[in-house]
Amino acid sequence: MGPWASGRRTRIRAGVSPAEIRSVLERHGLRPRKDLGQNFLADARVAEKLVTQSGVGASDFVLEIGCGLGVLTRALAARARRVTAVEVDAGLVRAVRAEGALPAGAELVHGDALLVDLRALLAAEPAPRRVVANLPYVVSSPLLRRLLDLRDLLAGWGVMLQREVAARLVAPVGSRDYGSLTVLHRLTTRVSRAQDVSPQCFWPMPQVVSSFLRIEPLAEAPDTAELARVERVARDGFAHRRKTLWNSFRDAAAARGAPPDATAAALARALAAAGVAPDVRAESVEPEAWLALARALPEAHDGAA
CB under 8 Å, gap of 24 or more: what pairs does 238-243 form? Predict the structure, then answer.
């Protein structure tokens, strides 16, 4: 490979191997951190394929969550206009910078993607904008939720997840995997499963299969405030999956201190308005019905019923 903008050759080659990853980490006194779910992508061909499947084009700005040792970052930089990668591990940030591992057009930011102002990072760049991320299990759900609130700035996002988490985003109504996260994504995005990624493509090798999803925002969807109400109502409904909606909502309202008589009347009105029977369970309710319930029952779920 040719030199990067710094004028020196990177010591991490584009086509890394597990042995090379170990060597780089050892050189900087690092080891994979289980608390951060660190499994490093070790196949440049897979990285290139994921970039293609994410829809990244030459005019795109890409915000990458989780740089690692930069294998996916380099593949993104080869395709996109500009890449900013956010990495939480200070040791990896030092190693990547010391190794000159990123090409021109790729910037590395040290920070926690759960705390960094992602909206500011995105808004600072002209559209089109995309996010690409390899999300460890421990932070996948909160980061997926954050991305939904950033959809007004994004042309789309591609995420690699543990296959069991990915199944929740594409789960059909009535299935065991169908839940509040499914509802929120179905109301606001189009989710497609691009491919599964074998554990052999990572080092250290995880004990789970990963799935890469491509997600695109819908043109018409609930706004941020309304989506928050849907989330609150759906979480109440799915909190006890074996209970009927009536019982789940009643218990949630009681926990917020709502008077029982007012709660019963509000629940009856909201369920009737949404066309939902009180004796159904949460997994049987279509996403559009959850939206109707949120519109009919916001006060009851703020504890004001």
Answer: 238/179, 238/180, 238/282, 238/283, 241/281, 241/282, 241/283, 242/281, 243/281
Identify any residues that bridge with 132 across adjacent strands, giving them in sequence order: 64, 158
Instruction: Return mean pLDDT, the chain.
Output: 92
With a CB cutoff of 8 Å and minimum separation 6, the contacts of 237 are 180, 245, 248, 249, 282, 285, 290, 293
Is the per-residue pLDDT at 112 higher than 60? yes
Provide the pLDDT for residue 299: 57
> What residues contact 70, with CB distance under 8 A and at least 6 apart?
12, 85, 96, 101, 102, 106
For domain 225-302, give the fold.
Answer: Helicase, Ruva Protein; domain 3 (1.10.8)
pTM: 0.91
Q: Is the pLDDT of residue 13 over 90?
A: no
Instruction: Specify the fold of 18-217.
Output: Rossmann fold (3.40.50)
Nearest to 136 by CA among 45, 34, 42, 205: 34
Q: What are the boundaries of each domain within the chain?
A: 18-217, 225-302
